[in-house]
Amino acid sequence: MKEPLKQLVRELENAQDPEAAATMSAYMRDQFPYLGVRTPVRRQLLKAFLKEHPPVKEWVPLLWEKPEREYQYCGVDIAESLRKKLEPSDIGMIEACIVSRSWWDTVDLLAANAAGFLLRKYPELKTEYAEKWLQSDNMWLNRTAILFQLHYKEATDEALLYRYIREHASSGEFFIQKAIGWALREYSKTNPASVTAFIEQEELKPLSRREGLKWLMRSGKMQ
């Protein structure tokens, strides 16, 4: 591991709390071990560390190799801080993180931020990567394909979003149904009439439909 990162590891280890670690791991269904460093403390430590050591993208995969989950959270934050400096070739690194130590807490942030930023800045990547993610046997890549436009608002490629949703609308996977609903809910804030019509016309799973309609129902924007 690079020398600066060893300093970050030491600081996080010094802040660990075994009792909190057990609670955090249980909350995440014991998918990963934790140090027990709570989010405000972790972010404060990382912010101070990055002031001393400007981040480089090579740190992200190195942090992904560490078993404790806080290191992946730091990797996500570093990728986000560097997203304007990411190049098309970095999409492979982001993809590798999505399919490694995968769970919603890291996948969703990478999908909507680093991956979404790269595919918006370099739309030619959609043909190779977004389409591959859509057709992948990896559920987390499917979820990424559905969610990468989450923050696009008026820049959303509506036809592509709806096509991707239709591709997985019959999925029995909870995380896919939830992603469909989330993507529709966010886009409904930009184009409520279109989303209302889509939900009414398509055969969506009840969870996807319910999640997709939440903002429309709450805001009274049902068209």
TrEMBL record:
List the InterPro entries hit by this protein, alphabetically: ARM-type_fold (IPR016024), DNA_alkylation (IPR014825)
Q: Which Gene3D superfamilies match?
A: ARM repeat domains, Hypothetical protein (EF3068)
Q: Write down the Pfam families for this protein, in alphabetical order.
A: DNA_alkylation
PANTHER family to which the protein is assigned, alphabetical? ARMADILLO-TYPE FOLD (PTHR34070), DNA ALKYLATION REPAIR PROTEIN (PTHR34070:SF1)
**Protein name, per record:** DNA alkylation repair protein
Q: Which organism is it from?
A: Paenibacillus sabinae T27
